[in-house]
Amino acid sequence: MQGFLKDSIEFLPILLQGLRLTLIVTAGSLVLSTALGLLWALMRVSGVPVLAGIAKTFVNTIRGIPIIVQLFYIYFVLPDLGISLTAVQAAIIGLGIAYSAYQSENFRAGIEAIDRGQVEAAQTIGMGWGLTMRRVILPQAFKIVLPPYGNIMIMMLKDSSQASTITVAELALQGKLIASSTFQNTTVFTLVALLYLCMSIPLILLVGHLERRFGRR
Amino acid sequence: MQGFLKDSIEFLPILLQGLRLTLIVTAGSLVLSTALGLLWALMRVSGVPVLAGIAKTFVNTIRGIPIIVQLFYIYFVLPDLGISLTAVQAAIIGLGIAYSAYQSENFRAGIEAIDRGQVEAAQTIGMGWGLTMRRVILPQAFKIVLPPYGNIMIMMLKDSSQASTITVAELALQGKLIASSTFQNTTVFTLVALLYLCMSIPLILLVGHLERRFGRR
Amino acid sequence: MPMIELDNVHKSFGANRVIRGITTHVSKGEVVCIIGPSGSGKSTILRCINGLEGYDSGSIRFEGIPVNRTAKSITAVRTQVSMVFQRFNLFPHRTALENVIEGPVFVKREPRADAQAHGRLLLERVGLADKVGAHPHELSGGQQQRVAIARALAMRPKAILFDEPTSALDPELVGDVLAVMRSLADEGMTMVVVTHEIGFAREVADRVLFLDGGVIAEEGPAAELLTNPRNPRTRDFLRRVLKPL
Amino acid sequence: MPMIELDNVHKSFGANRVIRGITTHVSKGEVVCIIGPSGSGKSTILRCINGLEGYDSGSIRFEGIPVNRTAKSITAVRTQVSMVFQRFNLFPHRTALENVIEGPVFVKREPRADAQAHGRLLLERVGLADKVGAHPHELSGGQQQRVAIARALAMRPKAILFDEPTSALDPELVGDVLAVMRSLADEGMTMVVVTHEIGFAREVADRVLFLDGGVIAEEGPAAELLTNPRNPRTRDFLRRVLKPL
Amino acid sequence: AAQQTLKVGSTPTGIPFTFLDTQTNTIQGVMVDLITEIGKDAGFGVQVEPMQFSALIGSLTSNRIDIIAAAMYITEPRKQQIDFSAPVYTYGDGLFVPKSDVKEYASLQDLKGLTVGVQVGTAYVEPLQKSGLFPEVKIYETIPDIMRDVNAGRIKAGFADLPIVAYNLQQGRFPEVRLVKGYKPMVVGSVGIGVRKSDSELLRKIDASLAKLKQNGTVAKILTKWGLQE
Ligand SMILES: Nc1ncnc2c1ncn2[C@@H]1O[C@H](COP(=O)(O)OP(=O)(O)OP(=O)(O)O)[C@@H](O)[C@H]1O
Ligand SMILES: Nc1ncnc2c1ncn2[C@@H]1O[C@H](COP(=O)(O)OP(=O)(O)OP(=O)(O)O)[C@@H](O)[C@H]1O
Ligand SMILES: [Mg+2]
Ligand SMILES: [Mg+2]
User: Fold this and answer.
1) H-helix or E-strand containing A58?
2) Domain ranges of chain C
3) N or C: at which end does chain C have fewer Cβ atoms within 10 angstroms?
4) CA E175, CA E168: separation in Å to the nearest integer?
5) Of A76-80, A140-144, E18-22, E67-71, where does mean pLDDT reach its minimum?
6) CB contact (8 A) between residue D91 and residue A124
7) What CATH number has the domain bearing residue B30?
8) Is residue D216 within 8 Å of D24, Cβ to Cβ?
């Protein structure tokens, strides 16, 4: 225990460096996946078969490939095509695209959960598709979508650790670096687990709050 | 392209070996996570505050810790306490426990989606809690729970790749081995991605089918 | 001894005092209709009687047994006092017959064959002999409600509580359900019926309670209360319901 | 020229032929009630008129413009023909006033202040001057339906379609909504009303259509059709609805 | 003119080659000292970036780093992707077993039938798998993981870079594990400094400096500092 504390004090500053990048990658890919996910979801419910088909194919392909493989492509294979991104950029884009599939399914479920009568009421006052979405459907879907959105955030936070495979020195990679240098695997992994838990807990509480607030009716 | 094909023919048999373990780990942890998830969910809706509290704390803790860290604990730290598991056992238990949190949330949502009137109808014909669950709630929740269950299966399939970190020689590890000895990273990762996609596609189709079948009313 | 006794029952939801002292009793074979405006506590008092809700003070007894939803005895009460809901609440994953035999087979542990024979008889009696194998979504609202009544009867109850059994029905389907209820009344079933069908209350009920704000504002023989209400609130309510325009 | 013209309209859902040739017309200022059993196509025909559903053959015209739900002209039709639904369909995330001004501000692009002034007037007119800032879940069913009527009126429509506007209401709340509808009729609004309130139809409607199996089985002046139906099916239907027991 | 700074990719495979000094939070070790000295001599500054071993070559060929300075063997397949400097240091695999196992293994044959472990990405994986002597060759991410499992008895023996194992056991970590002294390595290789194939100018400079540093004893000094002999 003594040793654990001593080691922790030594390791924590290094891990905290990684934590900064973990947060950056998570936040960045959260924004990107939300925007893209919304786009796919709107394409899916647009009623235009071509758009719906494209979105569906994209989402399904993305869902079937492990994130680690997607990151690898974006970071190591895209430069062959002349697109060279920094590791953090690639991580944000890779995780963002990967998670846009989950976001899209979440948004679509939220949109489809809104009573048909709402669309009809909007139509009878002359609203078109865009106006109906913007003024009637999305504001209501928002509340339905929020609790699962919180869960996606927790998952992203943890999956940002996969960015370590493309050299982003985030929490997990820093942990591995320390572990292989000091051989103190147990201490390091315990610290890493605790740090992830500390970041998750506010999110979990937030989700719980959102569920109580919006989930039930 | 020629080279890609030649390499593929060389690499595929090795990768297919890994695929066997990927399927074993996925199937095993699917069974375990389903059983545990159902247990947590039933504890959550039992109406007994102590049980609900235990289940909630457990689920939230599990959700906050990356799978990779949980696997590390179960495989490398538990032996210190005298519990030594094989790598495949540890992978199944680790993934099973980690995913039981998601399963539990899914089951709980399904149970809570059933109209209160169903519980009341069951009560008025004298059914107790257990009988109501078994005969009335769970059979109906089943249909609601199926489509997200399919999604969890897809996620587990992909996350089984994390078992590579505790020496399970599944698809992703075989891929790493070939890549680090031949340096044909692009070829190897493309093959790995395709294999995961091939395993996912039947699942994705199944989910689509289930959604059409049960999702709407 | 009356079959159902309520003595000064009170019940609040949070700060909302929904039942504020209700005392009445229902004798064996009696048909009591409860009328009153929305939110007056009609459903709540019915739900208290078979323990779907707890109550805060006072007492409710069924054949002398106190109704206490947390006691073991509640199962005995519930198997003897059935309930029919406004929204039917049939089990959607089971056929009409399966809905009907669910209680006898799994709660009362009757042999399945006996329960089925009895169930068929009951479905026939509510006019649905040809719908034995239909699932609820294949039935009209009126048919669903008649299955629900058969399900209640299958428990061989001593009393049945009805909570607005025809309010969710298309107007032209109301008659079939009311006809079944009338025939039950004619055969001497003890019934407590929350309803807005004033015509039914007038013809079938022995006694009518007018609930308002959680208390019995007026109570009396059906013919008398519905034709010559003494309480001005009863009068106003009846006027609104009978002549909406 | 009649305001709304239907000429031999047909409509199927898959193999289910729901509307099988309906021809009728509604003149300016006329109040037409549609009655008929469940599933006879009453809602469907109403929904075809303002393009919520397409139809398979025949023609529907509003002031001479063909109603075609895929054409651009549908917006013009919809802003002139409002609809009131059985389940109100208010926007739950907006207050009563916001519900009312949503169309004028965002579709007709009226200045917000004007729309608000008009909206307040309309809410006052349906008896809800004090509920301007209330959200739908804070209102009773009857109040919600009156907001829905105000929302329809805010579009300054030339006609309003009502689909069973009182069927989802508690019986004692029906009167308020019917009173508002009657006042609209008195002021000369063109209205098509699907309803089971035979009393309302008798007093307010100029003409009644009895729909059965997707065709107009009988049609005539309200007093005549409702008192002395010639078609036996009309007679049977009216008997069931008026005397359920 | 401002001195040019080159990005050096390294991976903390372990003390003494390259590792993260948790006290100073910097990458240290033989390869770091060496590339720094070479830079001083050849006239460029170095900025060391840590990454996983498997990401090194990809990062070099995609221009994200300019030099690999890690415990990376010069091998044929690698030489098809990148160029290496002259060998810096030569070593092979070490064999370690539980302290309770006092047998003196000399070659793979002596281990026949045992379950063994090896680190992913190392050159030792293939010969072990190909030998056909072992019922299972378990693949680990890190050396300490292998040592843990030797300790726990899940595997009977582990293979890893000899200098790293030696250094760590010498430091008193994993007291229940011992290095088998008499074991003869199955693979012996040399580590070198890696550069892009298109960067022959840089390679020339590095080789020239490396030769000079070997000559004047700097290389030997660095090796001794980290407990290695030439
Ligand atoms: N579970 C509950 N939680 C909180 N308040 C409730 C609950 N159930 C009923 N209430 C409130 O209790 C009051 C009486 O409700 P109740 O359902 O008994 O009225 P009712 O007479 O049956 O009305 P209705 O004719 O609309 O069915 C209402 O104000 C209602 O909002
Ligand atoms: N969207 C739809 N898809 C398939 N069938 C439909 C759809 N809408 C209505 N129908 C069918 O069309 C028929 C007529 O329906 P409609 O709603 O017009 O009847 P209605 O006269 O309004 O009945 P109610 O009094 O029950 O409202 C019914 O058989 C119904 O099942
Ligand atoms: Mg009620
Ligand atoms: Mg209808």
Assistant:
1) helix A49-64
2) 4-80+158-242, 90-156
3) N
4) 10
5) A76-80
6) no
7) 1.10.3720.10
8) yes
Chain D residues in contact with C37 by the CB 8 A cut-off are 170, 172
Torsion of CA A160, A165, A166, A171, to 10 degrees: 50
User: Which H or E run includes D102?
Assistant: helix D96-106
Q: Which of B135, B143, B155 is nearest to B107 (CA)?
A: B143
- Write out chain E's pLDDT in tens, 230 residues: 557 899 999 887 677 888 888 888 888 889 999 999 999 999 999 999 888 887 888 889 888 899 999 888 898 888 988 999 999 999 999 999 999 998 889 988 999 999 999 988 788 988 898 888 999 899 888 888 888 888 888 899 999 999 888 888 888 878 889 999 889 999 999 999 999 999 999 999 999 999 999 999 999 999 888 888 76
Nearest ligand 2 atom to the CA of D40 is: 21
CB C133 within 8 A of CB C119: no
Residues in chain C: 245
pLDDT (tens digit, 9 = 90+) per residue, D42-66? Answer: 999 999 999 999 999 999 999 999 9
State how many domains chain B has: 1
What is the rounded CA–CA span in Å between residue C23 and residue C60?
9
Residue B22, phi then psi, degrees to nearest 5: -55, -45
Sign of CA dihedral C234, C236, C238, C240: negative
Give the start-end residues of each E strand in chain E: 4-10, 19-21, 26-28, 44-50, 67-68, 83-84, 89-98, 116-119, 137-140, 157-161, 177-179, 188-191, 194-195
Q: Provide the token pair at E163.
A: 């200098």
Cβ neighbours of C61 (radius 10 Å):
18
Nearest to B64 among A76, A105, A196 (CB): A196
* D70 within ligand 2 shell (Cβ under 6 A): no
Question: Which residue puts its alpha carbon closest to atom 16 of ligand 1?
Answer: C41
Maximum distance among all Cα pairs of chain B, rounded to whole angstroms: 72
> What residues of chain B lie within 8 A of the CB of A65, using their CB?
158, 193, 196-197, 200
Min Cα–Cα distance to chain D from A106, Å = 20
User: Which residues are paired to E195 by β-bridges?
Assistant: E67, E83
Q: Are C191 and C160 in contact (CB under 8 A)?
A: yes
D214 touches ligand 2 (CB under 6 Å): no
Judge if pTM exceeds 0.90. no
Distance CA B103, CA C85 (A): 33
Element at E192 (helix H, strand E): none
Buried b (16+ CB within 10 A) or exposed e, B119-151: bbbbbbbbbebebbbebbbbebbebbbbbbbbb
What gap in Å lies between CA E65 and CA E7, rounded to an integer? 5
Which CATH number is correct for C4-80+158-242, 3.30.70.580, 3.90.79.10, 3.40.50.300, 3.40.1000.10?
A: 3.40.50.300
Environment class of E217 (CB within 10 Å of its CB; exposed 0-12, middle 13-18, buried 19+): exposed
Give the pairing of strands E89-98 and E188-191.
Answer: antiparallel
Domain containing A111 equals 2-214
